[in-house]
Predict the 3D structure of the following.
Amino acid sequence: MWSLVALIIGSTIGSGIFSLPQNVASAAGPGAMLIGWVLSGVGMLAIAFVFQVLAVRRPHLDAGVYSYVRAGLGDYIGFASGWGYWLGSVIAQVGYATLFFNTIGHYVPVFGPDHPVATAVAVSALTWTIFAVLSRGVKQAAFMNAVTTVAKLVPIGAFIVLVAFLGFSWERFTLDLWSTGGSTGSVFDQVQGIMLFTVWVFIGIEGASVYSKQARSRRDVGRATIIGFLTVLALLVSVSTLSYGVLTQEELAALPDNSMASVLEVVVGPWGAALISLGLCLSVLGAYVSWQMLCAEPVAMMAFDGLLPRRLGAVNIAGAPWAAQLASSVVIQITVVIFFLNETAYISMVQLATVLYLVPYLFSALYLVLLAARGRGFSHPHAGELFDDSGPTVSRGDNRRHLVVGVVALLYACWLFYAADLTYLLFGALAVLPGLVPYVWTRLQASERLFNTFEWAVVALLLAAAGGAVWGLSQGTLSL
């Protein structure tokens, strides 16, 4: 169970927490920030509980996020969720590595912003090095992740203690509590503006669910999810709240990406910035390993279930899904080239990756609502073998609680899509669209029905959004 907890913390505490002071301050004042954390805490806790409940109610679904959606809503919806999760992980990888080398560039000029080619080469080398480690098996990678998780928590803990006792000023924190004189708009606008940032730093909370097939006990998956969530929430709220007591909102918003280092530098001097920069490098390295592990799993599972070519599900003698890991590494490499040629900013990578992660969150919550309300999801050809209509007996009281959890998580996911920038929604649809090609090809090869009624509606919406993205690109009105 503790390996699963380490996987959650390792994949969730990545680059986001180190840029959190600047990200949040760019959109909200201290008061709106606290409201945003309450909403995000409740919403993401509900989503964490969705995966915990589904792990118990559907113990035979052992491919995590993807398998829940597929069982409840149909093969294509499951595929789209797995595909979106995979692409989000790929983009997150590039964002992690970019921030990693930008931080190193502060001390080693060859990786500075004036040398993008050197950074791109270094990101590529890191990707293939991690691939070599992962090909040796999950246990070796999990051990590496556990070591980096412990190592990066030390500087984060030091930041919280040092700022709390040496730098935090209540007067500064409350100086402009609601940011009434700023350009960030009303409190509602401020809360809406920080939503995707708060979700980004929670991405990975479902990590234990993704690896549920490799867990010793299904109940360990649920326990690890809750323990990991509460630990991450405490760290995130502490870092963002304490920062407002050191610098004003305007000063925080003007900081570079590694803004946590700048805040600690104000409190204790340059050695504080160096400590946090070291922590960021360890954190991003650990997250890089975790996410390169995680992003291969949906590909391997979809290949195993016949939604992608079966060759992608190949496993080597060490038990590693090397074909899926190889495919993921190749796509990461292509994404590195595209993003660096377009000089895509780290913040844009964050927003796009977050939108793609929201797809499985939304559909997993919808499945739990259907499960609690009617006992099953939507019908499709493989409902029987996916145990859609069977599972452990659930009492009426537990079922009502599960329904409440599902509804809260579903409303929160819908709110996040509403709060997201339309640009990233359109580009997210454009990124998911190419998955139709291998999906339709494998379905035709197996003489299977392409889509059920619900899936046809989703495909139509996807095509419309992707068409809007193409039109915006052609007219020059959309860009990353």
